[in-house]
Request: fold
Amino acid sequence: MDPVRVIEIKKSVFADNELDANNLRNELKTKGVYLLNLMSSPGSGKTTTLIRTIGLLKDKIRMAVMEADIDSDVDAVKIKEATGIQSIQLHTGGMCHLDAEMTRQGLDNVSLDQLDLVILENVGNLVCPAEFDTGAVSSAMILSVPEGHDKPLKYPLMFSVCDVVVVNKMDVLPYFDFDLEKCKAYVHMRNPKATVIPICAKTGEGVEVFAQWLLDEVTKWKQQ
Amino acid sequence: MDPVRVIEIKKSVFADNELDANNLRNELKTKGVYLLNLMSSPGSGKTTTLIRTIGLLKDKIRMAVMEADIDSDVDAVKIKEATGIQSIQLHTGGMCHLDAEMTRQGLDNVSLDQLDLVILENVGNLVCPAEFDTGAVSSAMILSVPEGHDKPLKYPLMFSVCDVVVVNKMDVLPYFDFDLEKCKAYVHMRNPKATVIPICAKTGEGVEVFAQWLLDEVTKWKQQ
Reply:
């Protein structure tokens, strides 16, 4: 297998990230490519969830993944080894988030013309990534059971900008004080329209619900 | 019980955070107060670890806690209810970290003259808080088992600026692919001098090791 490509992305020089993000979305629309921005805390299971999701979708749509991290290429290598799809690693040079221009630098390194879906795995962080529109069509986040159901109270913006909140590690629910109903109520306090999807990425349980949501989104985007 | 005080801290106007942090440390030295900066991902168990630690130390030294969060006062209330010590909530106005001036704004609201130790629970985030010297005498971080042992590879700065890495949620080790020896090796790759302390904040196991380290540090600081 070829080694995973590591792209060193540079800090954005554009002043107007919102304009830049809208331009990027329009370009993606023209090309018929859907971009999903996936966010979470460090260690909540973004990569494992992605591997499961890709397994369910890769024979239905053409997809690639961009893994953003401050350092290392462990995630991009994992995705490539487990799924065989195009997977590149973005190094943010210490930056805690990606903006639209940084996302574009990543997209310049995938074969957009041959793709229906690109998933951006953002830097593991519940604060800064929520503040920057990456140009994605939608944003999803993963909250894992061990983190606790009170997170929407503490990180309001993250929960208000996400269309989907995936609740991962449901298999360890018996060992943690995590109340799914309270979690849903807190999520909806921040964003009444958010869809909450409980899963266990380790066993794959529930991942088909998230995969179906994503497939429907991509189909709609390409038909609109 | 009186309600917890919530302080809205403002973004720093000082250009030279390093100078400001050193000035703050010198002032604390003069007053004989030790400041610990405690960092971690969201949901790794900072507050529960603090409650256990305070339980072991509050009859030996005079201590207070400052809880920094973007929103809510759940942590400060928890600490106050569980331990009875002075506990204030700092709201960062959306900011992802605290710098020295923001820390000082918090310290202006605790009774420094009657204290030996102040613990600052920083915003839950493995990226930005590591970049700003708060003026603390030392920094510690908590990594919890569910987050995975690879975190020092992905968040190098956080692990290199911390004197102590507490590994929390050791009780759920059987349910996660977490290798403590690998974790220690990765931590020491980033910071050869870091002390790694495995604990379970839920049961209290191992917390006495962290509490003793902290007590020794405060004692040394006051004698120097």
Observations:
- Chain A has eight helices and eight strands.
- The first strand of chain A starts at residue 5 and ends at 8.
- The mean pLDDT of chain A is 94.
